[in-house]
Amino acid sequence: MLALLDSSEKDNIIEKILKAYMDLATNTPKAVYLSSIAPLILENGLSDEYILKFKSKVKDITMKIVTKIAEILETKDIKKVSSTFLVSYNFFLGSWQHCNPPENVKRVLSQNDLSDLIYDFEKELSTAFRILWKNM
């Protein structure tokens, strides 16, 4: 994300961030899956020390990304950029998880004319993402 932001400008930053998310989903779906289950499953039972170390690293990386986005967007409202970035990331994970159910769930949906419960991930994420970032 940081490397991508280095080549971003105010008029294309939202599309570049969206592209980074879509590339992540396409090229490393297992990483997206692990990210979507991390808070509820993978982090459960970890030591306080490990959680603190991991979450501190996540915060550092997130703040570097948010600061770079704010610079490109020419805003000093770091809290708004941070909130928008975190909500968009969580929406990305939740949408991806919803649109990529386990094979047995896909099979049951398909066999029972329920496949339309799974929406077009790229289309809906793109639409929601643009709406979310619109006021930035």
Provide a quick synopsis of the model:
76% of the residues lie in helices and 0% in strands. By secondary structure, the protein is an all-alpha fold.
Question: How much is the average pLDDT?
Answer: 92
Number of strands: 0
Describe the global form: globular
Report how far apart the termini are: 18 Å
Strand content: under 5%
Percent helix, as a range, is: over 70%
Count of alpha and pi helical runs: 7
Q: Radius of gyration, Cα only, in angstroms?
A: 17 Å
> Would you identify the regions where 5 or more consecutive residues have pLDDT less than 50?
none
**Secondary-structure element order, as H and E?**
HHHHHHH
Q: Could you give a short account of the major beta sheet?
A: none
Query: Which structural class do you get from the secondary structure elements?
Result: mainly alpha
Instruction: Please state the oligomeric state of the protein chains shown.
Output: single chain
